[in-house]
Design a protein that fits this description.
About 55% of the residues lie in helices and about 5% in strands. It has 19 helices and six strands.
């Protein structure tokens, strides 16, 4: 009988890989019964076991053979921290950033070949600028019309409307609730809600689609402010928080004014109505969450701090219940443009059909695997 060959691995590297994935021993005990013994150094895993373990905790196999844990800092600024030390980014967040960077790099090179000019609004604002004035500039550049938004029936339509307006001026907007197309790797909105990669030619916004639709609308507006400011970063904008971080504070104020202009809010507000009922009415009018409305009413002096927190907590629980009931999924082809961004899909398809991009590269960028799917995408764009 052949002797089982085990590989020497430092116990602390096994523990690091598990903790990096945000998992407890109990989460892995069924698949790896000897995990605790591995972490104590009492027994070594086989190569096959180690490969399975590395796959499960989403860490490159070679990392586990290192003498000490590698540094894995976020490749872009982290604006998620309100107070305290920065949090360790999860593998899901890191891999999402890497994927978005790869797509942005390809698109930037594509635009350079096409002779595209830098976008004048990228980095056109500073923290010294009045957030209300910047919000006006954003609405003007995107040609966002409040009357058009009011006419939309649902928050989903409002999100699509704002997304299309951003893409029309040269901003790639990607939205997904999973890493790539891996439905087993769901993104956690408590870790991050959005991120921005600023570039003069190809700015990119990524929105965590695991969040509620109303929350995604605010995140998109918040990330637009990052582009005008010229600041890349990972964000976790939450309307109930008043961040100490100056950039996030400024971006929140711009986002709120983009979606719910102060002058219009004051004109529309009905002070005699009960706060919750009024918040829901105004949320339907502006196509934002009731939480955004409550924050805005507090900011403009129409809601006391005590009443704001009382009503806010009730509305937050209601929003969480809606988020738990809302499922992810849908038609793959319908979601492709949201996940990858329609301008990027169109560019990849055209470049591939013209022979400038290899098909395997196109499949990687689009997150697909077969020629049949690629042909369906071409037909959906009317270029097949």
């Amino acid at each position: 009988m052949a002797r089982t060959v085990r590989v020497p691995v430092k116990p602390e590297m096994i523990r690091w890989a598990r903790e990096r994935a945000g998992l407890e021993v109990d989460d892995l005990r069924r698949a790896f019964p000897k995990l605790e013994a591995w972490e104590r150094g009492e027994v070594q895993p086989t190569l096959r076991q180690l490969e399975a373990f590395a796959s499960r905790v989403r860490v490159p196999l070679g990392y586990i053979f290192l003498e000490s844990p590698p540094e894995e800092p976020l490749p872009i600024p982290d604006y998620r921290t309100i107070s305290g030390p920065p949090r360790r980014p999860s593998p899901d967040l890191l891999d999402t950033i890497y994927l978005v960077q790869q797509r942005q790099e390809w698109y930037r090179e594509y635009l350079q070949i096409q002779g595209a000019e830098p976008l004048p609004f990228v980095g056109s604002a500073t923290l010294q600028d009045d957030p209300e004035e910047v919000a006006v500039r954003i609405r003007h550049t995107l040609r966002v019309n409040l009357a058009e938004r009011r006419a939309l029936r649902t928050w989903t339509e409002a999100l699509r409307y704002l997304t299309e307006k951003a893409e029309a001026v040269g901003i790639l907007v990607m939205s997904s609730g999973v890493v790539g197309t891996n439905t087993r790797r769901k993104l956690d909105p408590e870790e991050f809600r959005g991120l921005t990669l600023v570039d003069a030619l190809a700015p990119v916004i990524f929105i965590n689609a695991a969040d509620t639709v109303a929350a995604r609308i605010f995140t998109l507006a918040h990330e637009l402010a990052h582009i005008w400011l010229g600041q890349s970063g990972v964000s976790n904008p939450q309307i109930h928080l008043f961040p100490d971080e100056r950039v996030e504070q400024w971006c929140n104020r711009v986002a709120a004014e983009v979606l719910v202009p102060r002058a219009v809010l004051l004109e529309e507000h009905r002070p005699a109505w009960p706060p919750q009922e009024e918040a829901q009415r105004l949320a339907r009018l502006f196509k934002v969450s009731t939480l955004v409305i409550l924050r805005r009413l507090y900011e403009v002096g129409r809601l006391s701090e005590e009443l704001f927190w009382q009503v806010y907590q009730e509305e937050r629980e209601r929003a969480r219940a809606i988020a738990r009931r809302s499922g992810q999924g849908g038609d793959f082809y319908r979601n492709l443009f949201a996940r990858v961004s329609r301008p990027l899909v169109e560019a990849v398809v055209v470049s591939t059909l013209e022979g400038h991009t290899l098909y395997r590269e196109a499949y990687r960028l689009l997150g697909i695997r077969s020629p049949e799917v690629f042909q369906k995408i071409c037909r959906s764009l009317g270029v097949a």
